[in-house]
Design brief:
292 residues, alpha/beta, Purple Acid Phosphatase, chain A, domain 2, 9 helices, globular
Length: 292
């Protein structure tokens, strides 16, 4: 069995299928880890949802900000934005089946390797103060709240405050902060203050804000963290993390989809692949960015 981590698909079904063909993916044999944002911006969110759901236990999906936005729109808490491409999902005859499946996906997933190592999968990032255990507990609290009363979560989800972690946050603020960190944030300060507006390339080295995984000390080092959400960063593997959002949707929107897989690795809808479950790790394979 091979485990593949796949970056933000964002409705790019043709590119996803082409990537899986290139990997010789077998649903009987292999497992896919999607780092969130299955939907929106691209042209085929409905097909992506149907396909990934059909994989059953062979696909692990964590929720991204676009997935949560789709759910908030479906629950009538939020209106579609002009740039959204979610209408096919919202009008589908099987929309309830798909959305009921989507809303029960986790915000963080841990995969223990059995030898003391583990992979932690989230969409965007963590704060330096969170351990792996805290991250899973906070994600679990959001997952329970989404199951119990989704509209209540979505009502309070939008907003950038609080911008710093504290053990004393109220339940509502804790839910929002957890969602913002796990699904939206890219940079923070050494004391954990987040700037949710930051997009584009990482800040200059003299900025107090740095990529979340470059802040030391980071309490989540017990696991390798696999994440997406930052297409301008591209594929990154350092400091105990693997970032796999290589911006498929932006390449796909500006180029014919058939060219996507013949281009540079950064045009792939996924970069981080091949997480072997046996030691020693298989070596990096070719240009598609195998991780070990
Ligand atoms: Mn995202």
């Amino acid at each position: 069995m091979t485990r593949y981590a796949i970056g933000d698909v964002q409705g790019c079904n043709d590119e996803l299928q082409a990537l899986l063909a290139r990997l010789h993916f077998s649903a009987d044999r292999d497992q896919l880890y999607f780092v969130g944002d299955l939907v929106n911006r691209g042209p085929a969110s409905l097909h992506v949802l149907r396909f990934v759901r059909s994989l059953g236990d062979n696909a692990v999906v964590v929720l991204g900000n676009h997935d949560l936005h789709l759910l908030a729109v479906a629950h009538g808490v939020r209106r579609s934005r002009k740039s959204d491409t979610l209408d096919d999902v919202l009008a589908a005859p099987d929309r309830d089946t798909l959305l009921d499946w989507l809303i029960t996906r986790p915000l963080a997933h841990i995969h223990p390797h059995g030898d003391g190592r583990a992979d932690l999968v989230v969409h965007a990032g963590l704060v330096p103060q969170w351990t792996v255990g805290m991250t899973l507990a906070l994600a679990s609290e959001v997952e329970s709240a989404l199951r119990d009363d989704p509209s209540r979560v979505f009502d309070h989800m939008y907003g950038d405050e609080p911008d710093r972690w504290s053990d004393d946050l109220t339940e509502k603020d804790r839910l929002r902060f957890t969602i913002n960190v796990l699904t939206r944030r890219r940079v923070c300060t050494a004391d954990g203050r987040v700037d949710l507006k930051w997009k584009g390339k990482p800040p200059p080295s003299n900025s107090p804000y740095q990529p979340w995984f470059d802040i030391e000390p980071r309490e989540s080092r017990a696991a390798r963290v696999i994440f997406g959400h930052w297409s301008a960063l591209g594929f990154v593997q350092r400091n105990g993390v693997v970032g796999v959002d290589s911006g498929c949707v932006w390449a796909a929107l500006s180029r014919p989809s058939t060219s996507t897989l013949t281009g540079r690795p950064s045009l792939l809808p996924a970069a981080g692949i091949s997480c072997p479950t046996t030691d020693p790790p298989v070596p990096t394979r070719g240009r598609s960015g195998a991780i070990s």
